[in-house]
Amino acid sequence: MLDDGSGQAAVSCDFAPNNGPLSLELKNGAYYWSLEGSFIADVTVIAFEDELGSNSCFNLCQSDTECVASLAKSRQLPTASIVYDCSIFYHSDTVQPYEVLCGNSLVGCGAPDGALACP
User: Fold this and answer.
1) Band of the pLDDT at 106, cuts 50, 70, 90?
2) Which of 73, 84, 85, 99 is the most core-located residue (most Cβ within 10 A)?
3) Torsion of the alpha carbons at 38, 49, 74 and 66, rounded to the nearest 10
4) Does the predicted model carry a pTM greater than 0.90?
5) Exposure of 52 by Cβ count < 10 A (0-12 exposed, 13-18 middle, 19+ buried)?
6) What is the residue-wise DSSP string for the chain?
7) What confidence score (pLDDT) does residue 101 get?
């Protein structure tokens, strides 16, 4: 889940009239999440249960006054357990947009509540 830090989920998409710093863009036949004017300032490893049970990555962003967005990406460890890498983003006017591949279809990149999601 990519959260803009507002607690309202990521409701900004690259389709009018919702253009904003967090968007979903179509490039070369694939959809990408794009976060403009931001860079990764810190990455924290979070246990699977802590992220799913209490939104730890979102809470880290909320507690950091410089944070403009957070991204929790799951990965499987060699021990077969799953953890999340929580990236905390800060604002900058001098960086290229941060982009992450979502998928080849718009279906699955946007959840019914307006949040940007990826299966």
Assistant:
1) low
2) 84
3) 10
4) no
5) middle
6) -EE-SSSS-----SSTT--SSEEEEEETTEEEEEETTEEEEEEEEEEHHHHHHH-HHHHHHHT-TTEEEEEEEEEE-TTS-EEEEEEEEEE-SSSPPEEEEEESSSBTTB-TTS-B---
7) 84
Structure tokens at 74: 């799951």
Distance from the Cα of residue 81 to its chain's centroid? 22
pLDDT > 70 in the chain, percent? 71
Token digits of residue 64: 């950091």
